[in-house]
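Predict the 3D structure for this chain.
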Amino acid sequence: MKNSLTILIIILLSMSTQAQSFFRNDSIIVLKSNNDTLKNPWAGGFNSVQFSEIDLNLDGIMDIISFDRSGNKLNTFINSGQSNTISYTHAPQYIQNFPKMISWVLLRDYNCDGKMDIFTYFNAGIRVYRNTSSATTLSFTLENNLIESDYQPDSASNFTTIYVSNSDIPAIDDIDGDGDLDVLTFSILGEKVEYHKNLSIETYGTCDSLSFQLANRCWGFFKESSSSSGIILYDTCSTNIINPEKENKHGGSTLLTLDVDANNSKDLVLGDVSFNNLTLLSNGDASLDLTASSMFAKDTAFPANNLSTIAASLPVFPAAYYLDVDNDNIKDLIVSTNCSSSCKSNDNVWLYKNNNADNNPDFSFASNSFLQGGMIEVGEGAHPTFFDYNADGLMDLVIGNYRFFDMNSSSNFKSSLWLYKNIGTLTTPAFQLVDSDYVNISTINLNVSANSPETRLTPTFGDLDGDGDMDMLVGDFSGRLHFFENTAGAGNTAIFILNQVQYQNIYINLFAAPQLVDLNRDGLLDLVVGDRSGYLNYYENTGTITTPIFSFITSTLGNVKTRRSNEFNGNSMPFVYEHGGVYKILAGATNGYIYQFTNIDGNLSGTFSIDSTFQNIWEGTASSVAMADLNNDGNLDLVTGNSSGGISYYQADFITNTHEINSPNPNKMNIYPNPTHNKVNINLNVNSITNSSIQIIDILGKTFYNQKVTDVNISINVQGLPSGIYFIKFKNKNESLFQKMIKN
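Done. Predicted structure below.
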């Protein structure tokens, strides 16, 4: 019992000295290929984004939130507040102040207290959160779970949830000019826009209530075709009765109200799920109380014909937003896509500057990548990994993507690898885009059956042929791996040549996400491959250093998965790393959380331990993860990719104690020179060398040197090692010690 208790104490001490923690760090500099500095490189990318303004830091200046429908991802940006200047800084610390939201989000001040409240989708309706911020703290309180409206105001009242499709975006605006917020939304039957009038002013004399009544079943007296984006004006509106006739449901539409001609009535900007353009419907309501809305003209090239600019054209399903982004007190126009997948996900946030007035705008096209152009943005999906491509001892960043829109492609989509070179130092990393189609992989027909390029590319690197340089395996959508041989030789900038399509006939159940790592610690690189179901596949290398043979062992490594019971797939994206002398696995997932698996060493046929929400990191759906020590502090830092095609960086803020036991003197091993090029000297001081060994291991866990120790002073020739970061591990019967070595 006493021995068991001693062992338990040792284990607990070991665990307590190896605790991990990460903090979000957006300060790492990233440059474009033309040397321009990205403003917010680590903000995480945009796909189908919605925009609203709100004072996040409570300084009296309106900031911006974005909400990405494709992954239900909220992002927050602080406005510098400089007049006539567009300058926003990513400020993710405010995200935690918002509730979880899905499908669409619009911020509006419904109770006239000067604070932006939240209107968002919930259960085919509208949920409202009231802004309850104090002078110092941003906060929200649920005000109305589902807004209701009296759908039969001309007979017995019938209060029913205001219907909003999850694919639509309603208009929430003061339609009748009385000071409270009304709602425009397509009916559940489709084609017609319902006008739900807020009776707060009429009933209570103030604007602080959400009391609605259906005022018109076909506001504007127009009809949207159920099969096209065509608009029929002056519709007879036969449905504008208590029991409307049945119609086909529309596929999806977005609504924005604004006054484009200074006649006080609200005009309507309409986007449709099947088309690239926006349609402006002009409202001829000249009544004093704005009760006679009727659309008399349509412009399918908006905003091109509203004075002069270019038309919005975004494949597919555009949506428009109206807010002041340049601090001139005039609202500007932002247009983005509104689909959840399979739409344009690069250069798809168009900004039109308003050069006139809110109620008589003069739009001029300013950018096709508002905020997005200041980020690492690779389209749809981002799968990062680290690799020293130019052998300078600094870890570079390679990002595979799922796909991005390309009209020149037969399928309108293609995938590629993005190479960001580390142009910083050993302690201060910085990156620059070198190539957005590394090894021209988007042009290579990796899909043999279709004779076409592949999508959803996920790279991993390792020396597969024993020549001292790092080769590349790329996983794809179809579940195959492809081998690119590095022919440059050790110490040289990588030159990759496609060696084998569908490498060794390895086939995974779609979405192959490989990592090369010596999982069983036999000196040979093995394969761990994630798949769409969320499992980890293990292929043991039963060959040699120069001729690997990957033998299938199991499709359920560790009996774990990254898929919850209510999810269709898991989309596992594994990264195996060594911490405290033992292996751990981080894995991305469809749901966006990062899974951590432990209890791996000596247990490859058993069940791993699991943490399904590692560090509570969540950067959007379809997460992926990679690690490297980027600032030379002895700790592995972390980057995550997501479905929005961006990258987030988390820096380790712990000091790793790599002892396996509680030692009173953790610095008993000295190595020099460090960095080194030819040889490294090791002094073990007072350490016992009985039954001891020395290993040199890279950051992915591959062992390059392993020898028994016979002297406290050791000299090892490392000239043949590729440049990079390594760990020297000394182990005797009592303990393990680690020191980092830089090979230049």
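Helices lie at 2-16, 200-204.
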